[in-house]
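Bit of a strange request maybe. I'm writing a small parser for structure token strings and I need a real example to test against, not something I typed by hand. Could someone generate the tokens for this chain?
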Amino acid sequence: MPSRINIQSFFDEATNTVSYVLWESEKNQAVIIDPVLDYDHSSGKFSTTSADLLLAFLHDHQLSLHWILETHAHADHLSSAHYLKLKTGAPIAIGEHIREVQRLFRPVFNLDDVSLDGSEFDRLLKDGERIPLGETFIEVLHTPGHTPACVSYYVDGNLFVGDTLFMPDYGTARADFPGGSAETLYTSIQRLLAFPDETIIHLCHDYKAPGRQEHCWTTTVAEQRAHNIHVHEGITKEHFVTTRNARDAKLPAPQLLLPSIQVNIKAGQLPPAESNGVRYLKIPIRSRADE
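Reply from user aminoacidic:
Good idea to test on real output. This should exercise your parser:
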């Protein structure tokens, strides 16, 4: 039976991030998953170029945006969810465990304006919830490990997995952020890989594994089971946890970690302008003696 869901991907090379527009043909209803706000860390300048491409696509295809969905509070790019909401009126949704992520990071940045109850988002999604899209539904799967709040979205033979998995030749997400857990990540991955072999997996990132010349962000459950370098069939939880933790210990922090987190736990809202009309992001400073 042909799929009623159409999928268009948008790759942001600056952050290696993939955003998606999904729409149902009969009703012209659309959702956006993981939109990017362009941000230059060296200058502090942001733009809406990537988000405007999504809006132009919606306009050109006469699509009505019904939801903006986040898979988690990203640590490697700023979200344009708030900008898209202002432009379209579409509500923003994320997994309900975003409240835990807010509790972890509000004291890091001393952000008194972070709610701790997730109220910056319009809807907090529970595991198993279904979001209508035309005549079909998007199912919410709680898939923590990379962060406590990670969710994946399943619709009509397609899984949108955020950072939980990468292409088979690149492996899996890191699990060393606050609230992350390699053990939990392994369990979440097994849940995803229990879907039928032909299920298409759509990734949030691709970094081109050594030796691969092209970016790729679509794979299948069968390919992941057979070839994922970190978690293919036969890899035990104990082995995965040991190797994942060892790899994470050597990874540098993402370049946009600090600006991304403080914006994304607020649904993509930038800090308010201060008395001089300028917005400021915070950079916590520590000495090595504090570690």
